């Protein structure tokens, strides 16, 4: 159930019986041959598939984030970290003011992790509420499913190559891993030269059945957070 499929009276009726919602966070940045919007596509789809059977509404994905390392790649849209955090703070505050008390953030971009600390600061002002920050690939069951596919899952390689993020099926040989520490310590133009096509290395594609099983596990783990992981707030 997406916000776009509801009006305010629908939402009022929902809030009379439940106080949960989901906020997906993404990013618009280069992902080699994959979509520029991989992180937004994955986080929103994960949120919707996890929440829909429970009838829990999902906010529109916040697609823009800080990704300065990839700023030299055409199509990347990077906002200041302060801008991103201000947006997240305003969105969470609006949701809490509107009557939501339990908010699950489904995160699709590693650069969004400062929002986890921000959420904790917001909760200090809203002691009767709870916010869970969940980077979908870090859940223990999902991480185990990823390890079964391989140890080299990373940015813009097989880990993010899904039917809904893939733009073409061109076969590419595996790429040698890049030095992420050097890339992070370099200005955008130098980082672009180091990355070449944009992938951090490894295989570009994993068996489809393995990827779909990993996705199934990730959705189930995210749904379990919505159902069973809220602390008791008095």
Automatic annotation (TrEMBL):
Its cofactor is Zn(2+). Coiled coil: none annotated. SUPFAM superfamilies: Creatininase. Keywords: Hydrolase, Metal-binding, Zinc. It holds the Pfam family Creatininase. Belongs to the creatininase superfamily. This is Creatininase family protein. The lineage of its organism: Bacteria, Pseudomonadati, Pseudomonadota, Alphaproteobacteria, Kordiimonadales.
């Amino acid at each position: 159930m997406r916000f776009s499929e509801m009006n305010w009276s629908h939402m009022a009726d929902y809030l009379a019986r439940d106080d949960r919602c989901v906020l997906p966070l993404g990013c618009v940045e280069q992902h080699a041959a994959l979509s520029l919007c991989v992180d937004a596509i994955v986080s929103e789809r994960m949120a919707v598939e996890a929440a829909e059977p429970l009838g829990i509404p999902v906010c529109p994905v916040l697609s823009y984030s800080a990704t300065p390392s990839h700023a030299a790649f055409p199509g990347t849209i990077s906002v200041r970290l302060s801008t991103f955090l201000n947006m997240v703070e305003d969105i969470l505050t609006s949701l809490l003011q509107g009557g939501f008390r339990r908010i699950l953030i489904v995160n699709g971009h590693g650069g969004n992790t400062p929002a986890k600390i921000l959420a904790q600061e917001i909760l200090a002002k809203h002691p009767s509420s709870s916010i869970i920050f969940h980077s979908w690939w870090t859940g223990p069951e999902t991480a185990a499913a990823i390890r079964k596919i391989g140890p080299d899952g990373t940015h813009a390689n097989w880990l993010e190559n899904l039917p809904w993020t893939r733009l073409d099926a061109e076969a590419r040989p595996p790429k040698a891993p890049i030095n992420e520490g050097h890339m992070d310590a370099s200005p955008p133009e130098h980082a672009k030269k180091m990355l070449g096509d944009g992938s951090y290395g490894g295989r570009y594609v994993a068996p489809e059945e393995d990827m779909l099983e990993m996705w199934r596990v990730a959705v189930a783990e995210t749904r379990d957070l919505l159902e069973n992981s809220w602390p008791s707030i008095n």
